[in-house]
Design brief:
alpha+beta, 7-stranded mixed β-sheet, about 30% helix, globular
Length: about 170
């Protein structure tokens, strides 16, 4: 099954009759545009990690987003999956986004730095999360967000690295 991009630049599932067909369309897009493609970020660093695991995390969801230990227990979330085409565009800087660096505590030390690029499309936020690994990035996930989440978790805790792209 081929994928369809709507007028809004996101995946269009109007021709799909069930979640399995929607997931197939997402996989087709992912394989063609992200999985084997060398993605170079706006700042010149290589982005790795476009695997089945990252794909699954991007298109799935959690019934309890407040308990990260539960993981993703919903196999397909259309709102997340529709945004797949934004990932490459945001990373390459084809869409202007605000970029933040957020450190994460592991025990007593700050060890994992995450770079989050945030775009706002018609009052909806979309976040692309990458881990900094020496001189490159590793894609972790991407998800739609709300203004309150953005204000509290990203803008409130992150260091603004400026505008990324365009």
């Amino acid at each position: 099954m081929a994928y369809t991009i709507g007028d809004d630049g996101l995946l269009d599932f109007s021709g799909c009759s069930n979640d399995e067909e929607k997931l197939d369309q997402c996989w087709d897009y992912f394989v063609e545009n992200l999985s084997d493609v060398e993605v170079i970020a706006f700042d010149g660093k290589l982005v790795r990690g476009f695997t089945e695991v990252s794909f699954s995390h991007i298109v799935s969801g959690s019934s309890n987003k407040y308990d990260t230990a539960l993981g993703h227990d919903i196999d397909f979330v259309e709102r997340r999956a529709r945004c797949l085409p934004l990932i490459g565009k945001v990373i390459r800087g084809e869409i202007e986004s605000r970029c933040y660096r957020v450190s994460e505590r592991r025990g007593k030390k700050l060890s994992v730095r995450r770079v989050l690029t945030v775009i706002e499309v018609e009052h909806e936020y979309y976040v692309v999360v990458m881990a900094e690994v020496q001189n490159r990035y590793a894609i972790l996930t991407a998800y739609p967000s709300s203004k309150s989440y953005y204000d509290r978790c990203i803008r409130g805790q992150g260091t603004n690295m400026g505008v990324w792209g365009a």
